[in-house]
Specification:
single chain, about 230 residues, mainly alpha, three-stranded parallel β-sheet, 6 helices
Length: about 230
């Protein structure tokens, strides 16, 4: 985190120019009957959630390209997210991704409070196998033909909900990489039906004041068909 006095000093050095520009813009807008103070109030209420992985250096789920000084774990990532919010005042929440951000919820809450952050939507991961995972998602997760693999994927999402409840989140984001790479590999309709059944089980475990989001990626990672858009 950056010392508050450092930020205040940097802002103070530029405040006079900012106020001059602000007053000039306010005068221009007033000639069009637009209230700059109303616009400012709306802008100040704006906020976006930082995905926890966003503070790392280059990488995807296929490969990692670590850089010097990147965060070692979720506590370091929360420190970085807190610094971003210090500088922008527009990123008050963090969106966690499980299992990478799995930690004692009480420690997560304590750290978030320390750096002035809250938590946004939880994000599940059933598009990638993890060490020690009982059943592979190579051929699907929530839409897998094997009911035990589907159950494993559902239980992971329910775990994300429980972690979220403990830290004050009120939403779950689900993205699956299920699909097919060539014609005839799977039944598109039955695959989608299995996905819907799995999502019903997840939705049944959703608290009343929560929302659920379906993350959409075009043509990724399957080359022929992907479950969500089909």
């Amino acid at each position: 985190m950056i010392e508050k006095t450092v930020i205040e000093a940097e802002n103070a050095a530029r405040e006079a120019d900012l106020q001059a520009d602000y007053q000039a813009l306010g005068a221009r807008l007033a000639r069009r009957s637009v209230d700059i103070e109303a616009l400012t109030a709306r802008a100040m209420s704006f906020g976006v959630a930082i995905p926890s992985w966003g503070t790392g250096t280059g990488g995807t789920r296929f490969a990692r390209f670590p850089g010097e000084g990147e965060p070692r774990g979720i506590m370091d990532r929360l420190d970085d997210c807190g610094t971003i919010h210090q500088l922008t005042a527009a990123t008050p929440r963090v969106s966690l991704h499980i299992p990478w951000d799995r930690e004692d919820p009480s420690l997560l809450r304590e750290k978030a409070e320390e750096v002035g952050l809250g938590f946004d939507a939880m994000n599940s991961n059933t598009f990638q196998d993890q060490p020690g995972q009982a059943r592979s998602y190579k051929f699907g997760s929530l839409s897998h033909t094997d009911p035990e693999t589907r159950r494993q994927a559902v239980e992971h999402n329910l775990e994300c909900i429980e972690i979220g409840r403990a830290i004050g989140s009120r939403a779950l984001t689900v993205w699956i990489g299920d699909g097919s790479n060539f014609p005839g590999q799977t039944s598109l309709s039955r695959q989608f039906d299995r996905y819907l059944d799995s999502m019903k089980a997840i939705y049944a475990g959703l608290p009343e004041d929560w929302r659920i989001f379906s993350e959409h990626k075009i043509y990724e990672p399957a080359f022929y068909s992907t479950v969500v858009q089909d």
